[in-house]
Amino acid sequence: MTPKIKIHLADDHQVLIDGLTNLLRTVDNFEVVGNSLDGTTVYDDIIENNADILVLDISMPKKDGIETLKELSQKEFPCKVIILSSYDDLKIIKEVMKLGAKGYLTKKCAGENIIEAIEAVYQGQEYFCDAVREKIFNAFTQNNPKLQTNPYTENQILSAREIEIITLIALEFSGKEISEQLFISSNTVETHRKNIMKKLNIKNTIGLVKYALKNNLINS
After folding, report:
1. Inter-CA distances, 185 with 47, 69, 125, 163, Å
2. CA dist., res. 63 & res. 170, Å (int)
3. CA-based nearest residue to 162, from 196, 125, 128
4. What is the DSSP letter of 2?
5. pTM of the full structure
6. Which end of the chain is more exposed for a tag (fewer CB within 10 A), N or C?
7. Which pLDDT score is estimated for 15?
8. Measured CA distances, 161 to 80, 167, 184 (Å)
9. In 3-state terms, what secondary structure has residue 31?
10. What b/e readout covers 61-84, taking b as 16+ CB neighbours within 10 angstroms?
């Protein structure tokens, strides 16, 4: 029997907690094991219920999400953190990812993406909703004129994230540089690179560059 993914919700709005709880209960292998209405009890709560995933709001009374995450980052805590916030400010996103968060969703996209986010983060991946990911990448492209801003639409072989990765590889960014710019780990970058090469049947970086040029992902 597949073990259930145990989820703890931390948000100061009971209505949101209730709504997410009802949504998550529709997934057979999800179990909402608790909730917190402010940050002061989060650490004790997740230790007590042994949560696998903490969905954490930024704006909470007494102790906000960033303070809570700082506390967690200084201790050994058993779960992975997904930030759920009304804010999509890049400084906040960068700060929470440095503090150990593995995912970031805006509340506008929570209903659409929360299930996918939990599954991805539980499996060891980082996760951003489309609006956040596009904001990160668009901010990066503004400082890099060789990057094409037109969407890649030739086919659906590659995911949006894989298109971003192959584009940056083609521009000779290192795995470390890509991870820093897109707020993902170097291991995630390497996993994407291997998946891209497998999907496209490409054997080396030169092949990736040729593909990016052929499909107008970068300016020659």
Report:
1. 26, 18, 9, 17
2. 43
3. 196
4. P
5. 0.76
6. N
7. 93
8. 21, 10, 11
9. strand
10. eebbbbebbebbeeeebebbbbbb
- Cα-Cα-Cα-Cα dihedral sign, residues 31, 35, 39, 41: negative
Rg (CA), the chain: 19
Report the chain's mean pLDDT, rounded to a whole number: 85
pLDDT score for 122: 94
The pLDDT confidence band at residue 156, using thresholds 50, 70 and 90, is low
Neighbours of 197 (CB within 10 A): 18
How many Å from the N-terminal Cα to the C-terminal Cα in the chain? 53
Give the length of the chain.
220
51 Cβ neighbours under 8 A, 6+ residues apart: 6, 7, 8, 33, 34, 45, 78, 79
Structural domains of the chain, ranges and CATH numbers in brackets: 5-130 (3.40.50.2300), 144-214 (1.10.10.10)
| Strand pairing class (5-10; 53-57) | parallel
Q: How far apart are CA 33 and CA 45, in angstroms?
A: 10
Per DSSP, the three-state class of 53 is: strand
* 3-state SS, residue 151: coil
- Sort 143 into a burial class: Cβ within 10 Å, 0-12 / 13-18 / 19+: exposed
* The predicted structure's pLDDT at residue 29: 94
Count the neighbouring beta carbons within 10 Å of the beta carbon of residue 158: 21
Q: Cβ atoms within 10 A of the Cβ of 190, count?
A: 14
